[in-house]
Amino acid sequence: MTQGPLGYQIHPWELRWRGLSISQLERTESTFALSNGHIGIRGTLEEGEPVGLPGTYLNGFYENHELPYAEAGYGYPESGQTVVNVTDGKIIRLLIEDEPLDMRYGTARHHERVLDFRAGTLSRVTEWESPTGRVVRLKSTRLVSFTQRAIAAIRYEVEPIDGQSMQVVAQSDLLANEPIEADRSGDPRVAAALQAPLVGQFAQAEGYRAVLVHQTRNSGLRVAAAMDHEIDVQDGLRTRVHAEEDLGRLTAAAEVAADGKLVITKYLAYGWSAQRSAPALRSQVEAALAGAHQTGWDALLAEQREYLDNFWASADVEIEGDPELQQALRFALFHVLQAGARGETRAIAGKGLTGPGYDGHAFWDTETFVLPLLTYTVPDSARDALRWRHATLPLARERAIQLGQAGAAFPWRSINGAECSAYWPAGTAAFHVSADIADAVARYYNATLDHDFDAECGTEILVETARLWNSLGHHDQHGGFRIDGVTGPDEYSAIVDNNVYTNLMAQRNLREAADACDRNPDRAKALDVTADEVASWRSAADKMLIPYDDDLGVHPQAEGFTEHLDWDFAGTPEEKYPLLLHFPYFDIYRKQVVKQADLVLAMFLRGDAFTPEQKLRNFDYYEARTVRDSSLSACTQAVLAAEVGHLDLAYDYLAEAALTDLHDLHNNVRNGLHMASLAGAWSSAVSGFGGMRDYGGTISFAPRLPAALSGMTFRMVYRGTHFKVSVSRTEATYELLSGAELETTHHGEKLTISEKPVSLAIPELEDRTPPRQPPGREPARRVPLDGNTEANTPR
Amino acid sequence: MTQGPLGYQIHPWELRWRGLSISQLERTESTFALSNGHIGIRGTLEEGEPVGLPGTYLNGFYENHELPYAEAGYGYPESGQTVVNVTDGKIIRLLIEDEPLDMRYGTARHHERVLDFRAGTLSRVTEWESPTGRVVRLKSTRLVSFTQRAIAAIRYEVEPIDGQSMQVVAQSDLLANEPIEADRSGDPRVAAALQAPLVGQFAQAEGYRAVLVHQTRNSGLRVAAAMDHEIDVQDGLRTRVHAEEDLGRLTAAAEVAADGKLVITKYLAYGWSAQRSAPALRSQVEAALAGAHQTGWDALLAEQREYLDNFWASADVEIEGDPELQQALRFALFHVLQAGARGETRAIAGKGLTGPGYDGHAFWDTETFVLPLLTYTVPDSARDALRWRHATLPLARERAIQLGQAGAAFPWRSINGAECSAYWPAGTAAFHVSADIADAVARYYNATLDHDFDAECGTEILVETARLWNSLGHHDQHGGFRIDGVTGPDEYSAIVDNNVYTNLMAQRNLREAADACDRNPDRAKALDVTADEVASWRSAADKMLIPYDDDLGVHPQAEGFTEHLDWDFAGTPEEKYPLLLHFPYFDIYRKQVVKQADLVLAMFLRGDAFTPEQKLRNFDYYEARTVRDSSLSACTQAVLAAEVGHLDLAYDYLAEAALTDLHDLHNNVRNGLHMASLAGAWSSAVSGFGGMRDYGGTISFAPRLPAALSGMTFRMVYRGTHFKVSVSRTEATYELLSGAELETTHHGEKLTISEKPVSLAIPELEDRTPPRQPPGREPARRVPLDGNTEANTPR
Question: What is the fold of A392-547?
């Protein structure tokens, strides 16, 4: 393992941080966050302080706050939702011979933490000398269980290492309404809603156990948290347990022998509900706790590792030639798994459960960037996330009615399914989110042939979103089907006519809905779908208007886009990025400047609608106008760069996507990880250098590596078949791991993936002139670190 | 005079309301408001209650309040401004034999109020029987002086008419921080800013005089109000004067003989300043008061009448065949004069000084609708209003910089010149306001040849707005000059490319700026204008892109407009109007539905850019899509309807514009009068049936009357020449009133207006099929009331 004085260390299967840096704590709290998709706990130190942002989140648990408007309009959402820091159970405070352990004081002789991608744990070793000269070693290991979704656990050890016995007092807490910074969002109303959002309803303690039940003030959601402990120490243990409204505490005092140690195992259980009573929730978490306690620490660890072994067997991506990228890709896969593993009909938020960024909202990020990874690796998690969307259909139907449309209009941002976007040109108008959800449904179905989901949920989502498009669009005087006045993925344009991405995704949506109705005639009938309606969908799809600029030979991102003035990139210094913080929307919207892949994303997700020549010209055209002021861009640019043959550029973009959080490229990792960018790193590898595409149920590959990589192997699941693809500079090898044989193509050549590995040559690529990016907006040129070099540290 | 039981009475020179209707008070407070453009007082009853909205306004006097955003953006204004109800001096409370006079109690045996358009006064006669049976006659007359701009005055008489003497106590107040309704705007922050906005700084009383000085809490503006009195009564007068922080009061108690009366004359003076101290302001209002007192009531009345005689001699419009319309037109002229007469480098707000609507903000309404009337009747007032705009150039330059543009960007809505619009797609993006201001500058110059203004102010405004357009637009790949991503006058579209109105007005702006620089080379040089810059303006103007739909043979309002889906008018019931209260912006913006004349307004103000055939086709096309959810539309539709030959339709629209407030067509007259619609009524008459146009300094006429009218005579001033035009059904007569002879045209035929009247025949008009409006959105068919019919009462 590489070691350096401070910062992340490069290792293929873990993320290790060596040394103490108080100023970096808020970043590592996000990168070291543990989650199973249901519970999320940030990587704070056990002793509670110093801390950047404490954070314990339960998927779907939020508080409401008013959304203010200086000039309100019809249909503006009145209420916002924001994720709440619930009862904090990860705190174990320590008093060493009367001195509180606080890393800001005394001396950290040694400090390191490790996130282990295979064990699913965060471990810590700290050797601390107190201001009065006593020295202890502290070890902790925590997990949020993938197998018992209500459970987290901590093993905590203290031992004197200065040759003398010492008095140790540990306080293990459940702490509600932790103080947080006054104003995270800049909006005093949100801050007010989050100051002490929990109202105590029940508190009880007995033996080594405590339980607290709270309810939010406005949203009325109820949360229960419970803890139990095992304590192992040789001599003189005295304990006291206590509960009050916002605090449950087990105090353990012991005289630890010079060669002895105090070991505390803390089990935590969480539950929340909008409907269940305080006694019911209390019972629920106490039962979960009893189960975890009965399982025991070692068995929890073993279950965790087994779960992850299975995951890596289906999902791992191996990279040869760039150890840091290898680490980053596994870091990405691990965190995306954490975000989605046990969501179980709750949303996968933009930040997962790693921080309060974006108010804890889920966006189109989930379906477009995160679900592809889950669909092809742990498809059940993709299914569960789509079941959440399905559960929100009543709210999406209401919203469509409010907006004067048919079918269902899914929200731009939400926790519970209700629209929370307060700026409609970049929120409500971005109707593509509904097509993105439909796309994810179709992708999941094609990748799994899960007929039960198709009949129960998928068809209904496809039908209701197709209805939305059929009412949003209209046939013009020449018969073309137009979709006017909407906003595409690029948030530096808004309210445009015939955004190519939106129209192509709507086209797929309409066709997939028609196909789903053919597959599920009973379901279609129950949804009042008529043959005429299906015919109108197919007709709208067939007549879909896709603008094209004949003079320039490129697709305008939307009608008129290529007529607009180019942004003055030469006159825009680096400090003026991101543009939206330094220029008014009006000026950004009306010029040719692209925040994030839009037409280029269309060329990925609807690559079947473009010729190779169009892809090359379009890519180069938009490359010169894309500033990547969003973390949702580099991964898509990587995929298309690889497809059109700019392999080294694709490599740069892949690295940017994969390292977004580890290098804190957007300087906001403290608020949580960028799940879409992490998942996008996987797409960059598998769909970029692997060339994996899946259009309408036909999976295909066109692998090709950049100069810096000597090999890449990735694993996937498709229709129950587990297989792996190993790519070298000259050939690719396809090998079945389990399940039935699978037909696919390699650079257009048919092949069958079977138990006998098949190796096929990679065609030569003609030379390409690399495209230009706006000055200063090029991705960092990737120079792979070898295993003996210091890792890049966050800026 | 026509009389009826209740409501407005038809009379050519006055607006009389007979009878008491408490529920109508809030409406008549607006229609009976008095103002000189500097001070405005609503037509409340002297006794203070019952009241709809009390209101005493000083032009430019406002309070600040925070503008909240759930999702803020760069360049959003942080602070709003709202007009403040200042110290109320129009209150004279009355106690009759221990009974407060309150029209809600006792019996109003007779009650009428008269706004006299020639006297410039509001008079009242009330005969009231108290609950205990005593009967008094109350007469009051008020004026806000056109000749002494700081002064208002009230003559107030009380006489017993039940044959017995009575004890009368009158309390004449200066009252600050009057209680107002909690929430006028729906925004609690605005309401909070307006609850007791004034902080007392000085209060003093002596003899019959009192003075109060206050300062606003946030904006820091200071206001002084002072009153003095004359009291005339036969016997036993006792008076007491008193001043406290928010109240100045003269109490006059008298035993009035059975055949006697108590007469109080109250003089009021107002002053405000952002800079002057409390003592200075106190001195200022006391001096003004001394002046008014010295002038005396009768002389103030005489001055007022003389001022108005002069006005009517230059501005009157006589109508034959529709007495109610005659009254409405003079009502309109009178109120527009009140709004603009003595503004003197302050704005003319959308509501004038008649109510708190639109927060007291000025919009493009001023330059586009109000200033034409003033330019051709009292041009000095137009000049003063434009001097206000000139004074705000520093703020407009700052705003342009903030928006990344050159030159000056005038605000969409403001009191002091700073942008106060919180919704940028329908505010900041409506850049046409700057071209509208430039248009008003050019119109004023062409109509006056006022070289001093041209050199001091006009050229600078034209140059800075031309610079704005030159930076907002760009030459596309084919050389055409495009202006992308802006919002035109029609607020049911937003953020569009090449709005025809905007582009044509910008074209004029660029050319007028170039011409102004040619006229004023020194000024141009001082503004750093180079020959290259002027050439670039002319080139941009010459290459201005004006989209045209060849298939339909009409101009799209903006690029792509005619491709959009038509609004489902048939499926939109009446109660769903105005649309913006019942449908989301996104759906309104992307469909062919027009709130207010946009392309049609372009055909009026830039009629020189369209052929007659285009005008006819365009008018019919937009007529079918215009819903008139704005009071800024009917007047323009009237002008173009008349031009293209739909004379009866023009008549309907003229009536709608003229009666907007008297019939309370938008159900909001309580918040103030619609100055633009009132002024627009004048345009409907003079530019509609008079066919007056003024393109680039060439004034022309094409008069033609609708079937219902037998004659119309209007007066105007142009380049110092006063003249009148008398139109009959068959001919028009042009006659010089004073000044030099004037060249013009009549239906394209040249003529010279001279002392000898010239009569010319009106050409025959070929029959036209009337266009269709959206169902239910037709203007009311106008049936003229004869002089013996009851006037229409407000709905």
Answer: Glycosyltransferase (1.50.10)
